[in-house]
Amino acid sequence: MAARLLITGAGAGPGSNLIRSLRTGDPSLFIVGCNADRFFLKKSSADRNYLIPPLTHPALSDVLRRIIETERINLLIPNSDQDVRFVSGLRDEVPCRLFLPGKTVIELCQDKHDLVAFLRARGIPAPVTFPVTDAAGIEEIFRQLAPRSHLWCRMRAGSGSIGAIPVKSPEQARSWIRCWEGIRGVPAASFILSEYLPGRDFSCQSLWLDGKLVLVKTCERLSYIGPGNQPSMASSIGALSKAVSEPRVAEVCAAAIRSLDERVSGAFSVDLKEDADGVPAITEINAGRLSSGTNIFDLTGKHNMAITYVRLALGEPVDLFEEYDVAEDFYMLRDLDTVPAIFHVEELFDGIQEVES
Fold it and tell me: What is the largest CA-CA distance in the chain?
């Protein structure tokens, strides 16, 4: 596949992971990276790298077009929710292919409250959620969610569990939100309160073409990067993840994505947690992009999902339909300042000596 790709966020963790998966799957790809941060860009392993203006700069769309024309790019791959939203607005302007769901799907998925309300209205498991309008209304939300012992407070937009914390009382929620208002200038209306889901934590990644599920994989997050640095002690960024066979998770995600658009196309990364009865419920959908830890979905199983994404985007034949690709007993370990590593369970103790106590 002699294709030329442009990837945003080159040099940062998600961009580096994506490039690693693509090179493993097809070394013939020519990869161009871009980033608005020259320091991250310096770390990029792309074949060629471009420093671009930030998303808020009015010249960014023209800069991207010039890069695409100069480098003869076949496919532009946005690699964050912000980049997906920006690139989605250029779909009629960029002189190369994109592989994105519709604008309304992207906008819905980037508002966690509206997404959850949409899913629950269609009978798809998602946590009961209320928007915070102001600090005074928090008492009423707690009453509506009673008798739950504690709730989940987080922002209705953004990724990486930004602003997320479990709270046990209206006063705790008010104090947390006021802290964000006073220090970061984030208004109370940016937050939501949801039922707290105590069960296992899953990630599901899937590819779709014209309303048909092509490929889906699932993993479970077992621990998180830097949990002690976050009040929530949890994150969407797993430190230790395990590839798992969980048909219930795949089925819930497929139903959710089908409900978004009968002709949906693109990549979807879905976060889920089990409720008290063990039912997996959707907490977030990242529409239009692969996950930051995509390697566990690309470098295990029969199919490299990143490469399959590129082939679908370029209109190449992919002989897959509703493929649930399961590779059990593989673990991925991530941490700061290290390259993500994938091990089979049989390799976990190779080369390790235990000292008897």
Answer: 66
